[in-house]
Amino acid sequence: MVRLYTNDLNISYGERLIVKDLSVDIPDKKITTIIGSNGCGKSTLLKAITRIISHQSGAVVLDGANISKENTKILAKKMAILPQTPESASGLTVGELVSYGRFPYQKGFGRLTKKDYEVIDWSLEVTGISDFKFRPVDSLSGGQRQRVWIAMALAQETDIIFLDEPTTYLDMAHQLEVLELLQKLNLEQDRTIVMVLHDLNQAARFADYIIALKDGEIVKAGNCEEVIKHDVLRKVFNIDAEIGRDPRTNKPMCVTYNLVKGDFLHEEDNYPLYSAAGASN
């Protein structure tokens, strides 16, 4: 059974249609990565699935219910999102910021319970930042701050976590640190992870399922072997890519590429847009 899927989803900003008739299943307890060029609708799709923005038609369905009609606190107990640019945490300690993840469970005056404190401490421990609990968030490095935001998402105790470009502005070591943490959460706790990534090789290395978007439509969705391919990348990114094998994981990787000049999509090059055959209805 698929817990989360979209059905004929259309999302617009004003008169501009960004996502078009998009139907796709999100595999449960797997890592799904959304890839595509800037402005193709990756972040827009993520925001619509998590109800940060509304969609014009179609549906996002979670556990058999249309999320547009779901109670906010109930939805917040099922899915958490780490946006591309989290709101400022100026003046907050690490523990205080992580405690915000307990909002869906608070009643009355919103005082934290013993259970809340236990979950907060667990989230800090899992993400390896227990020693920073009383330190100001502003005093941490980029990678450490990203771990704090992930800890806040974990404190929501949701089965599904969405992340919009979680490695942005991080150096290579901290990018790997964050992605390995997310992989650990998936493997050890069965968390469903859905994230937007720009780096194709990171997507291939860490994702079980990849959704490749172009102009608000799915070009291809599947495992890395099905998506990280010359013809798919040509269609999605307008690049002529050389695909090799990662010597450590044996997964496909983009070794090098050139821009395709001029009218790169001739009739014989057309790659059919993805059809969500078997998508839930």
Report on this structure.
The chain has 281 residues and is of the alpha/beta class. The protein has a domain at 88-157. Helix content is 30%, strand content 27%. It contains 9 helices and 12 strands. It is globular, with a radius of gyration of 19 Å. The chain starts with a strand and ends in a 22-residue tail after the last strand. 38% of the residues are buried. GO terms for molecular function: ATP binding; ATP hydrolysis activity. It holds the Pfam family ABC_tran. It is found in: Cell membrane.
Q: What labels describe this entry?
A:
281 residues; alpha/beta; six-stranded mixed sheet; four-stranded antiparallel sheet; 30% helix; 27% strand; Siderophore_ABC-ATPase; cell membrane; iron; nucleotide-binding; AAA+_ATPase
Report a brief summary of the structure:
A six-stranded mixed β-sheet has the order 6-7-8-3-9-10, sandwiched between helices. A four-stranded antiparallel β-sheet has the order 2-1-4-5, covered by helices on one side.
